[in-house]
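Lab notebook, bench 4. Still working through the backlog of constructs that have no structural model yet. Next entry is a single chain of 520 residues. Request: give me the structure tokens for it.
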Amino acid sequence: MFEGLSDKLSTILNGLTRRGALTEEDVNAALREVRRALLEADVALEVVRSFTDKVRARAVGAEVVKSVSPGQQVVKIVHDQLVEMLGADAAVIDLNAPAPVAILMVGLQGSGKTTTTAKIAKRLTARDKRRVLLASLDTRRPAAMEQLAVLGQQVGVDTLPIVAGQTAVQIARRAMEAARLGGYDVVMLDTAGRVTVDESLMLEAAEVRAATNPHEVLLVADALTGQDAVNTARAFDERLGVTGIVLTRMDGDARGGAALSMRAVTGKPIKLVGTGEKVDALEEFHPSRVANRILGMGDIVSLVEKAAENFDQAQAQRMADKMRKGKFDLEDLRDQLAQMEKIGGIGGMLGMMPGIGKMKAQLENANLDDKVIKRQRAIIDSMTPKERRNPDLLKASRKKRIAAGSGAKVEEVNKLLKMHRQMADVMKMMGGGKGRGMAGALGNMFGIGKGGMGGMGGMPQPTPEQIEAMQKQMGGGGGLGPMPPGLAGGGKGPPGLPGLGPKIPGLPGLGGFPFGGKKK
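Model written out:
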């Protein structure tokens, strides 16, 4: 979502960091460009003014003038102000209240409110182990109640039985009573929406709020609506006392102004963001991580967390045991490709890596294509179990059969087998103690050596303190233990992926993996 804004801000700030000294005019000129970039991204004018004024007040002072690296100091100031604009600290849904905890979902029609309600219910059930009851209060939109009932079945959450003829307030009271009698922890009340904010909508929502006394009032806003989302948030907050915001369609191509403006305008935290259509496509909103992405600094912590959520520890242990024996067959490769898909594919993973934003043009020229993962898996799935465990059996006739079965060419089968041999050689080296463990695999993958990240501006390796902080984030102890494929971990984790496509100038660690090559 923030791609356009990120490109512009990165260009502006890179111009500052290349200078040895900065004058007040240099800073003012850069801030004029920052102001223009934010306005073009649909950030509210009042928010832009406040942002640039605060950055200027700090950037032209002694803090920058006396700095060893003035340009880097300005980048830090811009980053800090972005974090402040977005809310400083991450906020989560507050369930610290006597059960059943009522959560009132409000927002305009078409913002994804009903789908988001089901997503949050699944999240509370799966991650927080809470018993959740869903109730639709939308008596106007055709099949609105049935829609929530179907979504409830999909996510495995109970829904309040539909009783025709009841008003929204009557349904809300019945839901609270059913939750008390049924021993539910949370009741999610999905209110009706309108195309625009009107008095009848607000009056009905206010009556439901008075009848249920919800602990949380979550406003669901479509990030694609730009400035209108900010006006909607202000209107709902004034009438209902919104406690948090959920932004949907954050995976779209909107300019991102709503996300940057809503927190600053309303003072209410953005608690969750929808990142796709699937029922598990919901993430916590972390201001500092979003600021890092906007400024092209990457988001390693989110990458590790996402990988951990989709990672099978038992499979990791099996992989680690095989690696110590120097074994790596095509079934192992298929598992690695599947894990890569789960954490967002090669594009999603690289988007969270520090310094990758600067290499955008080169990555585009390399044609890194997530569809290749599916094709590679299809080729492996077309093999027999015996062939997957012993690739040496794959002679010409078998390759033709596999290519026909997977809709691929024999050349693609050969490329896959060549890549597997390269990875198997790495496994043998690591299994024999010649490798550097998972950290070494990550170094091979992204070109990280003793001097930092080659071709990426000398990005330093993480300090012991940073590693310890990440361990605490992950809830781990000493060492990150068996980590997802392709991520740095303890010495016993499964291997990383040795390369990511044909050699790209400036990215010395990205050679040898199947993603990439010119599209045909």
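Notes after review: The first strand starts at residue 101 and ends at 107. Residues 101-294 form a domain with the Rossmann fold fold (CATH 3.40.50.300). Flag for follow-up if needed.
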